[in-house]
Design a protein that fits this description.
It contains ten helices and twelve strands. Helix 5 packs across helix 6. It has helices spanning 62-69, 92-96, 109-112, 119-129, 135-144, 161-172, 191-208, 219-225, 243-248, 253-259, and strands spanning 12-26, 33-47, 51-55, 77-82, 85-86, 102-105, 179-183, 211-215, 228-233, 236-242, 312-313, 320-321.
Amino acid sequence: MIAAHPGAAAENVLSVENLRIVYNLPRRGVGKHESLTAVNGVSLSVPRGQTVGLVGESGCGKTTLVRAILRLEIATEGRIVLDGEDITQLSNRQMRRRRPKVQVVFQDPYSSLDPRMTVHEIVAEPLRVHRQYSAQRVDELLDSVGISPDVGKRRAATFSGGQQQRIAIARALALRPQLLILDEPVSALDVSIRAQVVNVLAQLQRELQLSYLFIAHDLSVVHHMSQHVAVMYFGKIVESGTREQIFGSPQHPYTKLLLSSIPVPDPDGREARRAVSQGEMPDPMRPPAGCAFRRRCSRAQQVCGEQVPPLEEHGDSGHLAACWFPVHTS
């Protein structure tokens, strides 16, 4: 199940169902508040052993969604089902026993690794917390990401960015999770190093049957890593489908806009004119009526300003888009 497409829970390691996260923010005046909807009715799932790419501009709600999946944010409405169990209302104590099932790798490895600890201590820390420590297990984890266990006494700051990210991946794998959330895991790395880290992730997925929720701005990496893709805009999923559907036949104008930003070789300057982003996302404190993308869309018509388009199937089976005038209807 990707986005709102139904599927058997047993087939998915993660299912997010109609999730809403609303913040009540103070206004001027005693006791006055106004609401901000950061995630608005998102449904998303990650099949076992596969990768779902989640893409969208900064500020679209991706990070808030991830924080909710990790239970660092409390959902206002909806459910989060992890490995068949609804974790939405679990207490912190109950959630602690489930946390090994889902781990996260952050964008900046230097900030996510404690500079006071050795590499061995960094990877061993989650094992110690959950009383599963084994020096042999730490060595195996380091070896699995291409880091020699012999350097375990060194501190992370002495390694390159790519090596630090490998160490972060080893740490994330320590408790044998079923789901890894990869939050821009290669965007801070040089291009040549990105490929190496992506290959490590792909190899680990094959060997350990891991499931990935892969969040990235670099759509070329998403294309390489993901079997399924969900596109998020202004707190909602606006399109989802297989990699081939999204990259080969985008239905939502916003998806087409994102794809047009992918660099392509064009030494002679003969490339067809590419779509250019116009405007910015609306103010979340003043959400517009109808489709949130309409003021940036060349296809918008009167209905787009009056009614919110439903996320429904367009084109091939399982290809969902929230648009009154999808791209295939020229």
